[in-house]
Amino acid sequence: MLKNKPELKTQGFTVKATMKNSVVVGPPAAGAFRERPSKPTIFRKFYERGEFPMALEHDTKGNRIAWKVEIEKLDYHHYLPLFFDGLCETIHPYEFFARQGVHDMLEHGGPKIQPVIPQLIIPIKNALNTRNRQVICTTLKVLQHLVMSGDMVGEALVPYYRQILPILNIFKNMNSKSLFLQPQWTLSLEH
Amino acid sequence: MSCTTDKNPKPKSMSRAREWTAEVENLFRFQQAGYRDELEYIQVKQGALIDKWPDTGYVKKLQRRDNTFYYYSKRRECQECDIHKVKVYAY
């Protein structure tokens, strides 16, 4: 009489896996797509201390930033990396201020942006490494604006490609509308 | 009969914009910042120069009455749904 022995689930490359009634289960998930929430940002700390020269204005079209100081007079070496650091934020109003503040500063920075590029790489990398799709979309749009914001900015980013591009390899096959809110995923870093 | 020089002209009539033009776009930007139009801005700010985008001629930066600054994009900001809210003043 043959006895039906229950199948034993086991992991691969073990002695149990060599047994006749063992079934090897697949490897555990590596967690490549798992979102990694970022630690509290310096941007949030500075914002709560009131160190940013801006205020939130509500108008008919939504929210807007009212700057207390002219953007052209701001110290870009101090403020621009702080705003980039806030790109990791997902909660209002931090997310709005960081995103809109970055766009405003890039729009009006001109030649002041290019010398600050090396200080922006770590915040960009941290934002992309969160694997949060909204944060990644925002960061990619910021990168597009960055390369168009001034002369030689695209070229200045070239040495840092190896730090900011690898994370995008994970998402290169995720181009369907069902997975992302905005399907624009092409990023041109060449100015 | 006194001859008065009209340094602070008041508008005589107001109408709503019907379609978008560059002028309507600038009026939209001034009204977002709390002014009627360019004339009132110059009156309030006592002859301050208005920053405009060189390519499009749209207003770039305005100082509000509380001395904060509003910055505007070089692209169109007045959408179709906002056009009828723009007030056009005639002097």
User: Which pair of protein chains has the largest interface, and what are the residue counts?
Assistant: A-B, 15 and 15 residues
| Oligomeric state, counting identical vs distinct chains | heterodimer
- Indicate the mean pLDDT of chain A: 85
Helical fraction of chain A equals 25-40%
Number of helices of chain A: 7
Give me the secondary-structure topology:
The complex is a heterodimer of chains A (191) and B (91).
Chain A: E1 8-10, E2 22-24, H1 42-49, E3 54-59, E4 62-67, H2 76-85, H3 94-109, H4 117-129, H5 133-149, H6 153-157, H7 161-164
Parallel strand pairs in A: 1-2
Antiparallel strand pairs in A: 3-4
Helix pairs in contact in A: 2-3, 2-4, 3-5
Chain B: E1 13-16, H1 22-32, H2 38-44, E2 51-52, E3 59-63, E4 69-71, E5 87-90
Antiparallel strand pairs in B: 1-5, 2-3, 3-4
Protein architecture, described:
The complex is a heterodimer of chains A (191) and B (91). Chain A has 7 helices and 4 strands. Chain A is mainly α. Chain A is elongated, with a radius of gyration of 23 Å. The longest helix of chain A has 17 residues. In chain A, helix 2 packs parallel to helix 4 and helix 3 runs parallel beside helix 5. With 91 residues, chain B is of the alpha+beta class. In chain B, strand 2 and strand 3 form a beta hairpin. Chain B is globular, with a radius of gyration of 14 Å.
Short description:
The complex is a heterodimer of chains A (191) and B (91). With 191 residues, chain A is mainly alpha-helical. Chain A has 7 helices and 4 strands, in the order ββαββαααααα.
